[in-house]
Amino acid sequence: MDFSSNGKYLATCADDRTVRIWSTKDFLQREHRSMRANVELDHATLVRFSPDCRAFIVWLASGDTLRVFKMTKREDGGYTFTATPEDFPKKHKAPVINISIADTGKFIMTASSDTTILIWNLKGQVLSTINTNQMNNIHATISPCSRFVASCGFTPDVKVWEVCFGKKGDFQEVVRAFELKGHSAAVHFFAFSNDSRRMVSVSKDGTWKLWDTDVEYKKQQDPYLLRTGRFEEASTMPCRLALSPDAQVLALASGSSIHLYNTRRGEKEECFEQVHGECITDLSFDITGRFLASCGDRAVRLFHNTPGHRAMVEEMQGLLKRASNESTRQRLQQQLSQAQEALKSLGALKK
After folding, report:
1. Does the residue 267 lie in any domain?
2. In which ranges do the WD repeats occur (predicted)?
């Protein structure tokens, strides 16, 4: 599944040969309408919105390639979905584990379970091939700032490359940027914060780590480790994670359960046991950070991000104590009140 960058839609794909586009404004309603795009003679295993939200790409299970769908708005407010005449050429030799589109719209990344990551332009030409040298890739993605491609696999580190473009927007090269080093076993998964200044990783060593990646890597400065938390489930089974846009909340999924952590304190705040009939296959916060979505069986589950509201309360209370002028105090007080109101309405305000 994938949330659109304008916050309006959630796209999901399944083995039933459809991609469904859901309206996020219906999330709190009883009825959840969706628009359906049919995937002819195949089904999609991965789906990603384009940055302008006027198209989406899917990875075809049988075709082993990318297909682009254009979204055209109709007069009745709905959309018509049209697949472009040509799919991307087949280039991968192993199953593809993830696809991603740069927010700048300049390139697409596809990563397969061997050690290959391909960087494509939007016309389906391969710009660069990255060999991750990690025995096998488990996860790879593009950072929200569109500068980096990162991957994890059999090794205990996360490798990050910079995708470089010239001033006129022409592709130049892919160069090594930095690595997250500190785990003692294979990294299952990682994610970026919305501003790409934080990353979080979870490993088979039974820990998760929060990193400050806002460093001068061109001067060989390494990312800083900010926090390490325990997550024992990761030592016995694969897991996924999602980081809230503000990097305050970490969601970890193992099997069919979800655990939510406060990243500032490293403490577990919520646990949702067996929320799907099968293992969770995807986990994502929406762009507002209010909701966490998960999928794994034939349904998408949505959760209120109560730890996010609590983190906001903590942060605002701390800032209020140090606020020097009245206008700042009023603004902070307003944000504090909103977060407390949200918790109250969810019955999650701690006494």
Report:
1. no
2. 1-23, 89-123, 180-212
